[in-house]
């Protein structure tokens, strides 16, 4: 059991990093659930690193010896300990800020080097890694284990039984992790009616509430561009696809529309295959085969004739490695006498109507200028007779691109297009919270709006309500 400590860094040095704001301390439920506290996959090594960089932490560039004697980054060491002891990585980040201001401090201090988690007042575990493993071990293998097997921690904290803290506050823990935290540090502290000199467990909860985001709190629609740390991703459903190069990004997307998001939000998307090449790149594998990179797949040309027929330039072929090619799913082969694999934009010589011919040979009419400007400005218009156009099977009209933000003059609701549907933002406040910008809203006609069926409303998932607030 770590001895009760009055650790200097958790006094007023820490308090200056926590601006006093509207905050209600839930003394019996410091973290909302044991499941959340023990979510070891909440942040990956990349997510921890991005989080440290966001906060300007010295730990972002901090390296030291791991438990096995190998030199590793702070993020790598924290992630490994989280997995070993089945604790949420954010648990250690919050504890480190509460005890030594390690997360927002931009320079190394003796407190960070020697006692960043405040374990045992540095007497039995000194050093970054030693503190981490000792604190994690006692939380998981002693306190939480005892609560599950004996119903009480070594100092008498238990779920559902009131007990008085060292600073004189009666607390009735409502879950195991709360009982464990009071065993680790039996103070309520400044924000919960306890000793005003110390942050203690009220500071822990204040930081947790500021930094923790429940999974899918922000549900970014497909087509959104997010920056997480120094990486940029395209959102597609529950998947985030990293751009491996700026050319891959700039070929189809506006970099001005990238939204910076905290690591705790971005990490909740599954990482998909990287987007390495610009749309419609010509790729050659080490064996000599040539492919068209289109719609996330590699489509092989079956012959020189099929390559030449569509006007591709051999000088534009990119040499790709075997690993890069293996990452790209296979698409349909490109043969002669097909529709151009990039699609065609045709105009009726008689009526002037414009249609998009898909690579599959289907015709989507472009019924409005807004849609043309949004999707087809880069394509050359090819005049064709009504008879030639009629040969292509008609399908639904062309829609706006994923990620397009729209509104109409009469209806002030803001929508985002995703997977062919329009998704209304619950309010302008929600729109701004997501990080989208007013200047990129595109006004469209009611006709264009109604082409897109109504999709799921875009809202913010509220944090789990804490129960028994007075306990």
UniProtKB/TrEMBL annotation:
Q: Which UniProt keywords apply?
A: Signal
Q: Which residues form the signal peptide?
A: 1-22
Official protein name in the record: Hemagglutinin-related protein
What organism is the protein native to? Candidatus Kerfeldbacteria bacterium RIFOXYB2_FULL_38_14
């Amino acid at each position: 059991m770590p001895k009760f400590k009055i650790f200097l860094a958790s006094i007023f040095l820490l308090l200056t990093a926590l601006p006093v704001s509207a905050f209600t301390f839930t003394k019996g439920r410091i973290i909302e659930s044991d499941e959340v506290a023990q979510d070891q996959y909440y942040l990956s090594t990349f997510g921890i690193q991005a989080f440290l960089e966001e906060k300007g932490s010295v730990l972002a560039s901090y390296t030291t010896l791991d438990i096995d004697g190998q030199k590793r980054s702070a993020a790598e060491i924290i992630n490994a300990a989280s997995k070993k002891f089945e604790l949420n990585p954010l648990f250690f980040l919050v504890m480190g800020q509460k005890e030594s201001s390690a997360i927002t401090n931009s320079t190394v201090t003796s407190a960070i080097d020697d006692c960043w988690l405040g374990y045992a007042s540095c007497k039995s575990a000194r050093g970054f890694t030693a503190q981490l493993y000792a604190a994690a071990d006692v939380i998981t293998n002693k306190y939480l284990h005892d609560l599950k097997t004996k119903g009480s921690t070594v100092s008498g904290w238990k779920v559902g039984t009131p007990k008085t803290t060292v600073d004189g506050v009666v607390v009735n823990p409502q879950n195991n992790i709360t009982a464990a935290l009071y065993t680790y540090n039996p103070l309520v502290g400044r924000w919960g009616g306890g000793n005003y000199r110390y942050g203690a467990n009220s500071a822990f909860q204040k930081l947790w509430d500021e930094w923790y985001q429940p999974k899918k709190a922000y549900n970014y629609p497909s087509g959104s561009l997010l920056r997480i740390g120094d990486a940029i991703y395209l959102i597609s459903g529950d998947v985030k696809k990293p751009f491996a190069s700026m050319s891959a990004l700039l070929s189809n997307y506006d970099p001005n529309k990238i939204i910076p998001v905290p690591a705790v939000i971005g990490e909740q998307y599954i990482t998909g295959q990287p987007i390495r090449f610009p749309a419609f790149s010509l790729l050659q594998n080490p064996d000599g085969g040539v492919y068209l990179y289109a719609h996330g797949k590699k489509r092989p040309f079956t012959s020189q004739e099929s390559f030449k027929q569509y006007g591709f330039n051999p000088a534009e072929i990119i040499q790709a490695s075997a690993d890069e090619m293996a990452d790209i799913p296979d698409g349909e082969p490109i043969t002669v006498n097909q529709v151009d694999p990039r699609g065609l934009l045709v105009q009726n010589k008689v009526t002037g109507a414009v249609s998009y011919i898909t690579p599959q040979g289907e015709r989507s009419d472009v019924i409005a200028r807004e849609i043309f400007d949004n999707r087809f400005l880069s394509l050359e218009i090819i005049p064709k007779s009504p008879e030639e156009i009629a040969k292509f099977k008609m399908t639904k009209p062309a829609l706006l691109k994923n990620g397009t933000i729209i509104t109409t003059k009469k209806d002030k609701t803001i929508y985002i297009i995703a997977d062919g549907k329009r998704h209304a933002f619950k309010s302008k406040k929600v729109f701004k919270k997501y990080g989208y910008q007013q200047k990129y809203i595109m006004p469209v006609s009611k006709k264009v709006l109604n082409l897109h069926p109504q999709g799921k409303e875009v809202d913010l998932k509220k944090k789990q309500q804490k129960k028994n607030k007075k306990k």
